[in-house]
Fold this protein.
Amino acid sequence: MADAYVKSEWHKGITTIGFFHPQSNSLPGKILGELAIAIKHAGDDPDTLVIILRSAGERTFCSGASFEELAAIKNQEEGVKFFSGFAHVINAMRTCPKLIIGRIQGKCVGGGVGLAAAVDYAIAADGADIKLSELAVGIGPFVVGPAVERKIGTSAFSQLAVDATKWRNADWARKKGLFSELHPSIADMDEAISRLANTLMHSSPEAMAEMKKIFWKGTEDWDSLLVERAKISGRLVLSEFTSNAIEKFKAG
């Protein structure tokens, strides 16, 4: 964890929130907590007009839950606390009054798909394949599910959730609406992100905040809904099936 981080940088009205973890940008509880705080701070900052969410490296945007922490969960209280970390991040993104652009440069797994779904406008590079792997380890995409289903619809969400070992390519994700744009290279993706961020930087903050309320209409109960979903995952993660599946994953 010494190398893991969440960093925020402000430049001319644009706040870029970046995160990194040496295990394929996975999300332990500490990173989840810091992400939620960083998003809230940027949302409250009057000098921030638009937010960019990104991760380090090129191959993986986010590999989801930390298997080290999943394996260490010993009781339901610990499980609920861990999965509530995902709930807090998604709710921070949902209630943030600033538009959030997602820089999706690589693969998304589990909670990483949830992050991509919770940004307001995801711009991806070719190779940003996606997978909801939770069922394969005996749990399910319960906490991130509402964000993913909201963005791509029930049918596409159920396809990802049921066939939990199958990768869908970035073009599939674009066609289903998870990605707003898909570019052939990271350089092209970054150029598109810069263009959009600069356009939004000169747009009305009040209008953008009102638009965001409309985009997220119908999610007002998520403060309680996502915590209830965390309780399901917190219970299932204690099962013998999940314990064995996580150990196999770590060994393989």
Q: What stands out?
A: The chain has one domain: 5-188. The CA atoms of residues 67 and 250 lie 7 Å apart. The two ends are 21 Å apart (CA to CA). The beta strands are 5-11, 14-20, 50-55, 60-62, 100-104, 107-109, 121-125, 130-131, 181-183.
